[in-house]
Amino acid sequence: MERRFRLGSLYYGDARQLIQKLPDGCVNLILTDPPYGLGTDEYDDGDLLFELEPELWRVAASDAWLVFYWSTKLLPRAFELRRFKYVWLLVCLLQNSPTRTPIGGAHYQAVLVFKKGEPKLNMRMSDIIYSTDLFKPVKDPQFKCTASIGSLIQTFSKPGDLVLDPFAGYGSVPLMCELLGRRWIAFEIDPLKALEAVKFISSNLRSCRLPDFSGGWSGAASLKT
Ligand SMILES: C[S@@+](CC[C@H](N)C(=O)[O-])C[C@H]1O[C@@H](n2cnc3c(N)ncnc32)[C@H](O)[C@@H]1O
Hints:
The protein has helices at residues 15-18, 48-59, 75-78, 146-156, 172-180, 191-206, and strands spanning 2-4, 8-12, 27-32, 60-70, 85-93, 99-101, 104-106, 108-116, 128-130, 162-165, 183-188. By secondary structure, the protein is an alpha/beta fold. The chain has one domain: Vaccinia Virus protein VP39 (Rossmann fold). The strands form 2 sheets. The protein has a 9-stranded mixed beta sheet with strand order 1-2-11-10-3-4-8-5-9. A two-stranded antiparallel sheet has the order 6-7. Helix 2 (48-59) links the parallel strand 3 (27-32) and strand 4 (60-70). The longest helix is centred in the C-terminal third of the chain and has 16 residues, at 191-206.
């Protein structure tokens, strides 16, 4: 199942199958929040990012970024990636009340930056970002705030680039890609979340006046094109 928007499509299904339909080297930025394996729900398989790495590598352009939120508790696991090279750790400061950690309360979320080849930054950013919401947030701890996603998209891609989010959740990455003029492809396996994502993206797009990004490239990104 596919739901098309102006610059991209959300596919309901398993990223492991869906990604196979993407051509080699087409993605400029993989920006995602993968399952960590902390037992939050039935789809929380912490091996998935690593299982998917060969396909992520295949679809990534020769110079591309892989940027992903990750659990501080499981930080060492992130370095099990075999092909993408580690670049930096960003800290996303949380606004809401802290969750418990072995040493007190968590006030930030880790965001890891990896690369394939030598991608260029579109703009520079601080390695501390703020989790402000530009839109009414979805009430689920898994939801990632739109302002931090927007900063990451603006730093690690340029207008017209193709952004892939294989684990889209409620759709913050697709929404911010629409607003910032990036083409995008996103996958989500949980049908209820995919439905919520469509609502979240559509309703917030309706409430904004969008600039016209359609001139520079040919239409929306889709697995069929
Ligand atoms: C940490 S959550 C992402 C939350 C998202 N950042 C947001 O703001 O809503 C990880 C997501 O990956 C999805 N997922 C898990 N396994 C998947 C798979 N095989 N294919 C596609 N999506 C999957 C889960 O259903 C979940 O929504």
